[in-house]
Design brief:
The chain is an all-alpha fold. The protein folds into 2 domains: 40 residues; 94 residues. Helices cover 87% and strands 0% of the residues. Helix 4 packs antiparallel against helix 5. The longest helix is centred in the last third of the chain and has 41 residues. The radius of gyration is 28 Å and the shape is elongated.
């Protein structure tokens, strides 16, 4: 039963005026809470704007910070991949006492961490672009 039907039924069946007002107030309050939670769910985190507010920076500076973080993450990722690959190959090619495989695993774990950083930054940018398009569409409507 939707709210219009509920209100209509309350108006028809409830004879006591105070009880009718209380029930209608409850319906309105329920709708208000539902709208508030819906708006909160629809607001994704705007990473660039959040960074701009936290750092007191403009959007342009926040985007610059984002690019710096993205490039640094890519550099670390490439370094960790190459080092992990080198240690893995060394473990295959040598029979020395050093444990190259453990070092390769350690650098592979660091590689996964930097890959997660890249993914987080990239998905944050995509979310920002989606939010920006949504705002522009709302302004045009």
């Amino acid at each position: 039963m939707d709210d219009k039907e509920l209100i209509k039924r309350i108006m028809e069946e409830v004879k006591d005026e105070k009880l009718r007002e209380e029930l209608l107030a409850l319906v309105v309050e329920k709708n208000k809470k539902k709208d508030d939670t819906k708006q909160e769910e629809e607001k994704p985190v705007d990473y660039v704007a959040k960074q701009a507010v936290l750092l007191g920076a403009t959007e342009r500076v926040a985007k610059t910070y984002w690019w710096i973080g993205f490039i640094v993450s890519l550099v670390f990722f490439s370094i960790f991949v190459s080092v992990a690959f080198s240690y893995f190959m060394a473990s295959l090619l040598t029979n020395s006492g050093e444990n190259y495989l453990a070092k390769a695993i350690f650098f592979f774990i660091l590689t996964l961490g930097s890959a997660f950083g890249i993914f987080t930054l990239y998905s944050g940018k995509k979310e920002y672009e989606r939010l920006k398009r949504k705002r522009e569409n709302q302004r045009q409507s």
